[in-house]
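Quarterly update from the structural biology core.
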Amino acid sequence: MKSNINYSLFLALIIALTACNQSAQPKTESTSTSEVAPLKPRNEMLAKSGDWVSIQNKVTDLFAKIKQNPKDLKSKIQLAQIYMQEARITGEHPYYYPATLVILNDVLKQDENHFEALAFKASVLLSLHHFEEALAVGKKAIAINANNGFIYGVLCDANVELGHYEEAVKMSDKMQAIRPGLESYSRASYLREIYGQNVGAIEAMKLAFQAGLPGSEEASWAGNTMCHLLENTGDLVHAEEVSKIVLEQRPSYAFATDALGRIEMAKGNYDKAIQLFNDAIKVMPEFSFYENMAEAYTAKGDAAKAKEIYTNVLTMLNEDAKSGHYADMELALVYVKLEDYNNALKHAKIEYDRRPLNIDVNTTMAWVLYKSGNPTEAKRYMDTALKTGKQNAELLMKAAKIELANGNQKRGDELMKKAKQINPKSIAALS
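Predicted structure, tokenized:
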């Protein structure tokens, strides 16, 4: 299962990052504009967005200010913010996240206690799946300012990904108390989902969606995440309604187009699904869109085409990894699709060593072991994945298959029944 967390979501809280921009004296030479990657042109579809011209003008202005004064930390933070936003909007993560880290690290060389730089760096590290490092940087930031909602969200995300769920709940509660809104509601939703409260998770994400500015990236993300939650419970009608609302408000939001593709695939309309996945890919080169397309081809019986797409996804993920993104869990799951279980297990173990308490990581380990013919060992990891009582149909179906492979007929049947109750129209691809 792909994470529901949007690690750069808190950029909307830039106004809240008012504390602790302390004026320490520069300690090293500043990075010049020649060392910072330029703004990358958007593709034709995204360039039609009403904000693109103003973003280009703003970046031009910021580069001019930094060139004139390389110690202008405020302009550098604003540039980093825009680059983080562009990564999210365009999907050009391998380009923008390294560029953003160059900017933020330069600010921190001049002022190691710069709160905004630390907070944004932690957010970028989360996006790159460097969760331990993100947690450490986030803790340094919160020691500077313990009254800021943004940083509690960062710490919530980091703890979730590391499997420290009780600590994540504490961080979410503190965030709610400081700044209730889209960002805090979405965290509450994700934690409710982790603890098996599907109805509560949908309700909280609905609040997040309603709290956002219609058409903004943040609100669109919340709407799309609500769509995922509705799909998990088999409510395809409302999932489709939400996705169409998101697209009405933000026509270039490729994730909503992808969601419509998943819904069509669940209905058995594979050709229509493939077209929608193609439409999403034209807007953004997101690897999950390709994966969904491969699943659609598998479902319609074209295994050769599915294999071709999965092979291309491997190339994409490896290129992403070269930019500093930890993508081992994603690689493991693609290798399973290609029936390359040796490589799948290699990457699954790498990710497990990084975060052995995380539900999704344990699910991946369990599934790789099951598919490679080791259901006994798979059960150990699946038991850990089920520890919070998460009620996800795909998770429970995988757990059922592992129990049945171990000869635990009663337990396997119970889990399979529960999975089907949660989502009678399950679109879980378990081949």
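The mean pLDDT is 91.
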